[in-house]
Description:
25 helices; 40% helix; globular
Amino acid sequence: MIKKEDGKRVLDFIRTQMGVELPQAGLLAGQSITSILLYLYGKSNTIEVNDYDIFMPVECRRGSWSFRPETWALAGHSSFFKVSRYSDSMPLSKLPDFNLVLEDIKQALPTSNNLMKRARELAWHRNDKRLNRIVTSNNILESVESLTLDDAKAIYAAQDDYVMEYENKSAFNRKNRLTFSRPTNNHGDGYSIQQVFRKGLLNYVFVSSRTKDRMTPHPHLILHYFDLNCVQVAIDLRTQEIYFTRYFEHFMHSQQMILLRADRPYHSIIRYFQKKEQHGYYGNDELSVGMVNTMLCLKNLKEDDPLVLMETSPESYKMKVSEFGDGYADKFKSSHLIKPFYKIESRTVKVNRDENSNCDRQTYHLNHLKGKDEGLSYILSGKHRQHLEKLLGLQICNYPYYAISSLPSICHEHFGVFSAQHRNKKYSLLKGHKFNTRTECSSTIKDLLYASPDHFAGNLVDEHVRAVNTYLTRHPHLAKQMLMMSMEKKYQLILKLKSIEKKDFNFSTFLDGALYIDFNNMDSDDFAEEIQRQKDEYILHISTLNKLKDEADLPSLEMNGVHIKELITQGQLEEEHRTVRHCVNGYGHSVKSRRSFIVSFRSENEMATLELVQGYDKKYRKMQFRGIMNREPSKSMNQTMKEYVEFVNEQVELLKQA
């Protein structure tokens, strides 16, 4: 929606229509740009601008300045972590007798494909030429006698996790750990506000940070600290370039405010309600208030809180929460929307201007908010932590530090517009026009604007929604490129893509693998020819990208309506990885050394990947056969795979006889 020339349009509008003389350099950012863009695009009939914030490097200051305490604003503000892995997962008394294990491995290795694969991977990871000669020997029955006790211990271990795979897994007494450290202001890229100077409607904000040029701070460092999506836009006054985040695109598309940061929770929630009241934007109050209350709870956890009790070594998680002064207190008092959720509490402090004197004391009022509701129980009760531990297979330590630094992401993933919960609710909400505002962070139907922006224009057809969702579920990479299209435009484009896909099975490979597809001419008559040209260029590119072997060892053919082809370049493996969404891109070394043979299976409605290995008798055997996201392929696809393997081995027999 936002165009490259919008930066120049906004600046011209400010100078000519608003009568404001802007400086020739610096970074104009924030709400003023948003209000003008909404007016220029016909989404608002009025323009409300309080001031113009212009960010400049601190080196540009001239003259003398009054003292102001340094305020840090980190773009990352993350909690750092380390992973601790343990190999002593069982007491020594429970360790198996590796002399017996060695004999078992010698007997099982010639006939067990899984054990053979593990041994080959081990030899490759350790660069062990001796072990590699043993497991790749044509006479495997004799070569296994050369295995040593150390080889048996290594093969018995799971190389991916560095934890011994014992049959009695319930006897484990230690786990791998993911340990988070305290969020800190001393790491990552950020900026510090050194001075603010006001001249008329212009607010000059001098910052210490990385710079784009001598007169302009780095735009993305400034934007990513802004806490609301509706202000994440900036214009370089010198070049007239416009910068914005994908969250600002979301706002322009739907005019829905989203709270993206809660590092200074009191300030953020007051700004949220102030903008909602002043500009009439829509926002999910329950989600925003729940996020802020959760942040306050996380920074002041008590000893008997569930999150603290779940830690192996409980510690104090009390962290500083920035209070606010009289300016924000006035904003709170003037807002009617925030009153149902919070009340204000104040305290007075007196500070000496001169540290060596007790006179001339300055009085300050520091304020904080008292919430009427608790935070999100999903996070504070430990359910999200347990979900993460189960998902990662790790024991998490110092989880509160992770939750503090990643709270907006966690909330929007599980409760917000982008969550699976809302995708599942979509059809019932769209059909019934129902409002559900009392459950924890459930949103009104307006939260679906991002996924279906033309619903309130009366253009949405349920059948179109289902068709689009079904198609984009099969092609998630394509969904990212259609992000800002209206539902009707998505539907019309998908109809054209489906007609091309029916004629060309390789077309789905192109849709899922190409990093960028040009859909700008989708309404032209030669759209199909242009897309086919892009597809042919892509297929040619990946077929020559990092060749692993000169030619295929296995035949390419069509069998039972399934197109079958061996993958022989790293580019093809990467494309298969993006399309079928599993780890086949890591098999390049195995393909190059001919330890594995990767074969792609494509039908009109299904995709799968086959890994074959060649035994000492030169016959091919199936190691694994996986569909999308490692799911089990259908019975018909499995049957086609078996017929293909039989056909390949028949060709091997014919070559032997010849």
